[in-house]
Amino acid sequence: MTAITIYHNPACGTSSNVLALLRRAGPEPRVIEYLTTPPSGAELVDFAARMGLPLKALLREKGTPFEALDLGRAGITDAEILAAIAEHPILINRPIVVAPAGVRLCRPSDVVLDLIDAPRERLTKDDDAPYLKDEPVGAAEIAAPLQAAGLHIEDIAEPGRSFFRYRTLDGATVGWGGFEIHGADALLRSIVVEPPARGTRIGRNLVALLMRRAFDRGATRAYLATRDAAPFFAACGFKPIAREALPPAIAATRQLADLCPASATVMSRRITL
């Protein structure tokens, strides 16, 4: 069996969570501490291509010279990105996992479950939040939990909706969520944490994983409307936005144009890895 390789930063909680799960799931992975042994430019280009992401998606912004080097500017080339990484390996986002099943930038850490067989036991991260496995579901499966939470179901069977069930690794259903993609914008919707799972840090992890799936489909900004959960979403990095400032495609969704009351708080944030 080909060994799994993780490009790891031991000072990063997400990277450490991924490494812990890899070790629990199978043989010891090959661990490369990329700050001292960074991947080559050719390897990074290959990783990005195998992930289906632009090279710039592998850049880390927080705690790096990303802004000082103006790496977010329009028109930046892959050659410029690789030159910056060669000088500052801290710019590589982490962790990157290379496995027989594919290559992933595993942010949030739950994404590594795309590459491995999950252990069938409830495991938690370093903040005691459980790892989550998401699975696509249809309108028929999500209708009952949405109704029980008092959320709208009138449009869930219409085209363009993607819905997910979230389970812990021991198989317990702990939440639901969905989105609509409109170009580079995603409308997050239908987010429910099952009552027994509330207060266990699952909600934030669910939202992070939902945004990652939207990012993988081309979204770079997320929007949502909420009647009573604005403080929770603010803790997830969302900020209120006036309805007049919404992109037309988001404003025209049934959720915003018809189903959500005018009193609902509309919020937005960038989707970053």
From TrEMBL:
Keyword Cell inner membrane attributed: no
UniProt xrefs under CDD domains: ArsC_ArsC, NAT_SF
A single MF term (Gene Ontology): arsenate reductase (glutaredoxin) activity
Domain N-acetyltransferase: from-to ranges: 119-272
Keyword presence, Oxidoreductase: yes
UniProt xrefs under Gene3D superfamilies: 3.40.630.30, Glutaredoxin
GO biological process: response to arsenic-containing substance
Domain of life: Bacteria
SUPFAM superfamilies: Acyl-CoA N-acyltransferases (Nat), Thioredoxin-like
PANTHER family for the chain: ARSENATE REDUCTASE, ARSENATE REDUCTASE-RELATED
Family to which this protein belongs: Belongs to the ArsC family.
Full protein name: Arsenate reductase
Organism for this UniProt entry: Methyloraptor flagellatus
Taxonomic classification: Bacteria, Pseudomonadati, Pseudomonadota, Alphaproteobacteria, Hyphomicrobiales
Recorded name of the encoding gene: arsN2
